[in-house]
Amino acid sequence: MVNNELLKVHHWMSLNKLSTNYAKSMYLLTGQKIQSNLAEEFLVRLGNHQIKREQSAKHLGVIVEEKLNWSSHLKQIETKLDFSSSVIYKTRNILLLNTLKFL
What is the mean pLDDT of each run of 10 residues along the chain (103 residues)? Predict the structure, then answer.
């Protein structure tokens, strides 16, 4: 069923002279209880290309995982905050107070 709908999308894109970057195309099976046998047999095709399945995807800066938890996203935010706080800590005696407030 999914492949039939994607075939329609592919046809519409062809008519409107649009193209798909197959290297960046992927899909997620989301939900708390993903059946492993369903996931193994689930193949998504767009035109003559098979779309790869991923465990997580970044969309508009938010990392979404198959099981819809936020562990990867929170880990990324934690890493960015650690780096930013270390930069502020190391430059606290060098920069002016107004500059530090801006950071």
Answer: 84 90 84 63 81 86 83 91 88 78 72
